[in-house]
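User: hey, got a sec? need Cell division protein FtsB folded
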Amino acid sequence: MNQYKNKNMKKKKKFFYICLLVLGLYVGWIFMNQQIELKKLYKQEEVLNQKIVAFKKEIARLEKEKSLGNDPKFIEKVAREKLKMVKSNEIIYVDMNKAK
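Assistant: Yep! Here you go:
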């Protein structure tokens, strides 16, 4: 009877250690997956922060341009450069070599 009890105890211990090992592996696997996911999220956060900085710079540039909107010199500059407008009685010369 004692021998049967010892075998039974050994089987229970073996089963306990196997369960403990499986549980440890499962927890390790979960931890690794979380670390991988965290790295992805940190990279995504970094990209989004860079976009935020770029958008803030663009907003500042647009606000500056907006504040210049009533300045006659700025209006003339935009009309000449972007809209290719000229003043009356003004002649425009185009350098053909520069265009090439």
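Quick note: Residues 2-70 form one domain. Let me know if you need anything else on Cell division protein FtsB.
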